[in-house]
Amino acid sequence: MTTAREIMINQQPDDVWRHVADIAEWPRWNGAILALKPLDGRGSPEWRVQLPGIGWALVSIHMDPETRRLTYRMRGKGAAEDGQVEVLSAPDNASRVRYTIHYRGWAAWWPPLRNTAAWRLSRLKEWCETGAVRDPWALDTSNIL
User: Fold this and answer.
1) Where does residue 71 fall: left (phi above 0), alpha (psi -120 to 50 degrees), or beta otherwise?
2) How far is the C-alpha of 115 from the C-alpha of 66, rounded, in Å?
3) Overall number of domains in the chain
4) How crowded is residue 18: how many other Cβ atoms within 10 Å of its Cβ?
5) Which of 11, 56, 10, 8 has the alpha carbon at shortest distance from 36?
6) For the residues 75-95, what does the mean pLDDT come to?
7) Are 63 and 21 contacting, i.e. CB atoms less than 8 angstroms apart?
8) Span of 27-36, 91-100, 109-118 with lowest mean pLDDT
9) What is the CATH number of the domain that holds 24?
10) What's the 3-state SS for 108-124?
C-alpha cells in the first residue's frame, strides 16, 4: 500500500527542512515515534526507533540537503515502511511538503495506516508554525492537499 499527501506550511523551506532533518526532533512532531537512538552513536544513518505497540525497529535515514529530500526505510516485526519527505518552495515564502509512504508486510493491509502521512504532516505543520503540538492524536485534514 502506498499513501502520499501534501501540505502547505507558512514557514520558509529552509526552516521547515531544519525540522525534518533534525532526527532528534522527530518524536515531537511524529506521533508514531516514542524514542530514537543512533545505532552506533557516530553519525550513522542507522537508527533504532521505538514505536507504540511494536517496540523497537531499525530505520535507515538518508538526507539530501540540496534538494531538501529525506528518505527512510524502517523495518521490524514483519513489516516495513519506506518513506520520502520533500520540502519544496511555495509562493509567499511558504513551503509545500510532500510525504510519500510505501508499506510492506502486514502494514500494507492495515487500514489505519492510510492516514499516517496526513497525520504526520498536520503535526509537522503545527510544530513548524507554533513550536508545539497541542493535541498529539488529532488528525486535522483540512490543510492536507
Assistant:
1) beta
2) 29
3) 1
4) 16
5) 56
6) 93
7) yes
8) 109-118
9) 3.30.530.20
10) HHCHHHHHHHHHHHHHH
Q: What is the pLDDT at residue 96?
A: 97
Rounded to whole angstroms, how far apart are CA atoms 4 and 12? 22
Q: Residue 143: inside a domain, yes or no?
A: no
83 found inside a domain = yes
Q: Given the C-alpha cell 522527530, which residue does it identify? A: 26
Model's pTM, two decimal places? 0.88
Query: 105 vs 74, 77, 79, 81, 119, CA distance in Å?
Result: 12, 9, 4, 9, 21
Cell numbers for 145, please give them: 492537499
Q: Does residue 18 form part of some domain?
A: yes
Residue 43 main-chain phi, psi, to 5 deg: 80, 15
Q: How many residues does the chain have?
A: 145
Domain hosting 95: range is 2-130
Assigned domain for 97 exists: yes
